[in-house]
Structures are given as C-alpha cells and as structure tokens.
Amino acid sequence: MGRWMALEGTEAVAYAMKQIAPDVVAAYPITPQTGIVQTFAQFVADGEVSTEFLQVESEHSALSACVGAAAAGARAMTATSSQGLALMWEILYIAAAMRLPVVMPVVNRALSAPINIHCDHSDSMGARDAGWIQIYSENAQEAYDNTLQAVRIAEHPQVRLPVMVMMDGFITSHAVERVWIEEDDAVRAFVGTYQPACTLLNLERPLTFGALDFYDYYFEHKRHQVEAMRRAKEAILEVAEDFARRFGRRYGLFETYRLEDAEVALVVLSSTAGTARVAVDNLRRLGWRVGLLKPRVYRPFPDHELIEALRHVRAIGVMDRAIAFGAMENGGPLWLDMLAAAYRHGLHIPIANYVFGLGGRDITPSEIEGIFTDLMQIAERGMITRPVTYVGVRGEAPLPTPAEWALWLPEATIAGD
Amino acid sequence: MQEMIEIRWHGRGGQGVVTAARLLAEAAMEAGYFIQAFPDYGPERSGAPIRAYTRLSRSPISLHSPVKAPDLVIVLDETLLGDPSLLEGLKPDGWLIVNSALPPEFVRRRVGGYKGHLALLDATRIALEVLRRNLPNTPLLGALARLTGLFSLEDLTRHIRHHLAAKFGEDVVRANLEAVRRGFEEVRIDPGQASPGERPIEVPSGGMALPWFELPRGGLILDAGNAIAYRTGDWRTFRPVVEMEKCTHCLYCWLYCPDDAIRVAGGQFLGFDEAHCKGCGICAAVCPPKAIIMVEESRVVAAV
C-alpha cells in the first residue's frame, strides 16, 4: 500500500526520483537548483537509493552529463529551474535530437533581469521548441505522478525523447501538500527497467553517436524527430492509461472543469488552474456559465483535442505566465498556440489573452473572476477590444469586476444553472 | 554578354578557392557588374575538395541558391579532374577552365572524354615564377578576362592596384599585375565541339539517399568505424615518402598521425595507408631521424 505524506512539491518529485532510482542523476548544487536535488542528494547520501549522483560545475554540464549517461544506456535524470534551464539551452536541443530519454523536473521560475526567484513560466516556455516533451503539473501530487509517467513516456520505443515535468516555483515547489506516495515496488513495476535500444557501452556492437550531419542528412533527422513528437501524444495516453489502471489516478492530455455547458472558457496551466477552479465555482453560484481547461501536455501541443473540447463556447480566455516578446500583440506562448489551433481547426470565436503572475505576482480567484467578466463581455459583443491584458499590472486599465458587469448584464444571459 | 554568368569553382581546401571566387567577383564589380560570390561551406580541411560560386550580372542578383547550371567550371587543382561531378550541369556552350600544364587531349581524357570548350593555364607555374608562391588565382583572373571578355586587363589592373596598394608595396602590386598579364597571354584555348541546344551535362548523384524513416534515429551511425570507407587520401596535395634505411622504427609517426594512416606490424613501421593519409606532414615533422619527407602529390602522380 502507498501512504499519504505531507510533502513539498520538490520533495514529492525527489520521492518519485528515489523510487525510479535512475542510474545517473547529475546536478549543479546551488541556486537556481531547488529542493528536488537537495532532497534526492540526501537519499543518495543516506544510501536509500543507489543512483550515481554527479555533482557537476554548472547546469550546462548537468545536462551534458545526462546526455553522456543516456547515450551510454543509463536511465539519467536531472532537475533544474530558471537560469539553470537557460544555461542548459544548447544541450536541450542535443538531448532531444540525439533521442535520449532524459527526464527533467523543472521548477518554473522567472528569468533575470531584474533578478527574481519567483514563479513564472518564462524558463520552460522559452524551451518549448527545443524538442522536449513538456508536461505541466498543477500540484505536488501531479508533479509526483507526472514524473513517474515521464520515465515511461521518454523511454517509450515509439518516442525516445526527453521529457520536462513542470511545477510552479514556490507555489507548488515549496508548499507542503498532502501527497499519495505509491509503494516502491509498485512504482518500480510501473516504470520497469530501461531497455536502451542502442548504447555506447555495448562493445559487441560499436556505434557512433552525435556525428556530423550536413544538409544531406540533417533535415531527415529533424523529420524523424517530428515523427517522435507526433507519436508521443499516443504514448502519453497509453502510459496514462496504465498509470490509471495501477494507481487509480487518471490523466489525459488536458483536464476540463465544468466546461460541458460553459459559455466562456478559461485555458490555464499548472497551479493557477486550481485557483481558477475556485473562481469558476464562485461564478457558477451566481449563475454564470463559465468553465475551465487545464492543458497537461503542452509539447506535443494537443491542438485538435483542445479545440474540440472548446468548440461549443462563445469566447476563450488564455492565461499565460510568460510573454513571447515581439510576437503578435506581445502575448503569451499558450495564447499564440491556441489562436493557431483555432484557425487550423476552424474555430472562429474571440480568444483573448491574459498575461499574469510574472515574477511571482499573485493571482487570486477575484482577479480570475475579473477575467471571466471580461470574457463574458467579449462573448456578448462577439469581439475583442483588448487582445492581451497584463493582469494586475499598475498603469494598465483594470479588468471589470463581476459586480460591475452584473449591473448591465441582461438578466437572461446570467440565468444559468 | 548574356544577362547573368554563373561560375563554379573546384579546388582543394587551402588553395584559395573561396578567395578566387571573391576576387573574380570584385574585379567584375569594378567593371560595373552586380556580383555574388559564395563558398559551399563544410568542415574546412586542407586538401579536401571544395566548391565556390561566382555570379555576375548586368542587373541586381536576387537568386540565393547554389549554381546548378554553370557557364564556366574552373578547376584550380588538376588532381580533381577525375571527379565525376566536375562537369555537373555545365551548359553545352560553357567552358571548362583548368589550372594545368597538361596537354588538352590529356585533360579531356581525364574528364571522361569531355568534348566542349576547354581552356588551360599553367597558373601554378606562373604564380611560382612571378609571385614566388603557389597562388594560382591571380594568373587565372587574367585568363578569365581574355576568355570571357567580361572585363578588360585595364579593369583588372585598376582593381588589383586598388586592393593591393593599401596593404603591400609596389613590388607586390607589380608582381600581381605581371601574373595577371601572363595569365591573359598564356591561356591555351582549345575550343572543342560546342554543341548548342544540347542539354546541360547530367551526372548521376552517387550519394546515399535514404528517406528519413529508414535512418537510424538520433543521427546514430550503426556501422561505427565506417570512416575507413571514406578515402580521405584523395585530399592529399603532399605525400610522405620514407627513406627506409634511415627509419629506426621508433613509431613516433604512428603515435602522432591524426588519421591512423601509418601501417605498423610487430612493432615495425611498414609504410603509409595511402587511402587515408591526407598528407598533413605531421609524421615528417616529428620523425627524429628525418626519414620522412613530404613530396608534392602532383609530381608523384605525374611520375606514375
């Protein structure tokens, strides 16, 4: 039997890593590293896990060591955050292109400058095109569950891609929550033994890894990577299915909340989805038909599935905890992907962007209610006047409050359940 | 001239192929042309076959793709004459221009019985005599002025003065002008049989062409050690020659050779792996009894 434990998000992930017992974990031990590696290093020091723990001189080296270990046939993991992820940049692409199933929990935190240690998604969003699978977790439980599943997804014979598992910095990483930790043996049975198809250390069958690859082959190998990313969607669902069968917790590409009859929907990642659930309940009590969609898998982006889940609503709000500077309207990456997906799948409704919470700025249910109010107005008018709102930024026009909206909202439209 | 002339250069790393493509473009610009010069970049390895391109046009050039159907193919190194891709796409009325002292029939034979326009210039000899260095580009420019009529000797003179006078003394400028003049005068033209209306020369592409889904993932090479099939010995411009009576079998050459091209058995030096020796000269440099000397490849080839 498993057991309930009071764990911080980082501890929950460190537990997952202990149970996975990777062959190699390489990490850089000081800021911006998080409690994940600290806790895991303690497990190693206490002899609770036999992983070879490499303390390297930078995050760049941490991922490089994982690349080497994975190429040698080891199950390799590291963890990072913020500037650490930024420093890994070039190796991110190498791990993905060499098709090495490295699993890396990422604690989402802001990027300098100005110097900031708090939550936003700028770090992992910047890595969205690096060829890694990206899974976002709402809370410590999801971070734990996703880390376990990430190993299977990464090593899936149809995939063989590295996976990042995200949790929100501080909000999830440093908050203690009730987490169901599965039994070690059950986890071991679920993740299985890594069976690398090709390894550097197989002397019977010598191979060349990471060779030069010019215009005659490079593009073909990139196309190969596309195929792996395409197949990942199915593999993720297959792994989630097995996870649900063994542990009872069910995961998909995304999760919806009171979306079935919603007039307007909010799309938001990670911990804020939990906060938004409270806002949805508050407004539902007023009779507003609002709903929520929380993407779990951001890469590969489940464009078709997302749009089908949202096809019945009249307006969509997309909340982004990052800015794609210089992109359309200086909006956020999730919004841009949602707009593209809507266009691609013929959904022609207003889709507004709400950039929020940068550098750890709080986001509360009442602010999210403001966003829903804005969305109700947009749905009513059928058009957007402000495509991107920077929520709660001083000097920006504030969002309407539900009370303001209720004053001139026609009675009929708010009469709901 | 036609609206645009396209030129493909063939040579070996270290011979100034890229510079040649650029020099010609600059000279043509001086004469009022729109220009483009660019190399086919790869790992820059001394002696490896490389290509560069020059485009000259009466109007601005918006094309940014490799030259596929050249009007001129210029070969800086006659050891490349056996390269089957040398004539690829050459227009039926185009010119093959070779830096060579060989008679035209011999060159034609080496280029698979080529019948079209041919021009030959012993640019290396002129360069060695006049510039005292193996810089065949400058005499070739003179030959191109004569052959193409794209620019005059006066244009070239002005260009060379302009570019060299700032950096070098009058002696260097004069020597370069002399090299150009001799290239102009000494180019040997062998018209051959141009056959207008014929299609550009097609060369079957020799490379592997696996579709993406048949490739091992991640750029993995399953048959490790297949570099042995890559005959880098063709890159040589110099080759090591050993005087066996001086060799002490110390095997310094074997230790230092970056290409594992020293043949050794039972602790004895046996010779060089000519299929892979690139002629870098490290073995000769490190040989304690100086038993290895480097000899120009073309001399060895000519002697064979």
From TrEMBL, chain A:
Using the record's annotation, list all stretches that form the Pyruvate flavodoxin/ferredoxin oxidoreductase pyrimidine binding domain.
16-239
What's the short name of a Pfam family annotated to this entry?
Answer: POR_N
- Keyword terms: Oxidoreductase, Pyruvate
Query: Which InterPro entries does this UniProt record tie to the protein?
Result: PFOR_II (IPR033412), Pyruvate:ferred/Flavod_OxRd (IPR050722), Pyrv_Fd/Flavodoxin_OxRdtase_N (IPR002880), THDP-binding (IPR029061), Transketo_C/PFOR_II (IPR009014)
What are the GO BP annotations of this UniProt entry? response to oxidative stress
**Enzyme nomenclature, EC number:** 1.2.7.1
Q: Which spans are transmembrane here? A: none
Q: Which residues form the Pyruvate:ferredoxin oxidoreductase core domain?
A: 262-368
Q: Per its UniProt entry, which superkingdom is the organism in?
A: Bacteria
One GO MF term on file is: pyruvate synthase activity
Family listed: Belongs to the pyruvate:ferredoxin/flavodoxin oxidoreductase family.
Protein name (record) = Pyruvate synthase subunit PorA
What is the source species?
Answer: Candidatus Thermoflexus japonica
From TrEMBL, chain B:
Q: Which PROSITE patterns match?
A: 4FE4S_FER_1, 4FE4S_FER_2
- The 4Fe-4S ferredoxin-type domain is annotated at 238-267, 268-297
Enumerate the GO terms in the molecular function aspect.
4 iron, 4 sulfur cluster binding; metal ion binding; pyruvate synthase activity
Q: What class of enzyme is it?
A: oxidoreductase
InterPro entries hit by this protein: 4Fe4S_Fe-S-bd (IPR017896), 4Fe4S_Fe_S_CS (IPR017900), Oxidoreductase_gamma_subunit (IPR051626), PorC_KorC (IPR011894), PorD_KorD (IPR011898), Pyrv/ketoisovalerate_OxRed_cat (IPR019752), Pyrv_flavodox_OxRed_cen (IPR002869)
Cite the Gene3D superfamilies for this sequence.
3.30.70.20, Pyruvate-ferredoxin oxidoreductase, PFOR, domain III (3.40.920.10)
Q: What is its EC number?
A: 1.2.7.1
Which keywords fit this entry according to its UniProt record? Iron, Iron-sulfur, Metal-binding, Oxidoreductase, Pyruvate
Protein name from the UniProt record: Pyruvate synthase subunit PorC
Origin species, per record, is Candidatus Thermoflexus japonica
Report which gene this protein is encoded by.
porC
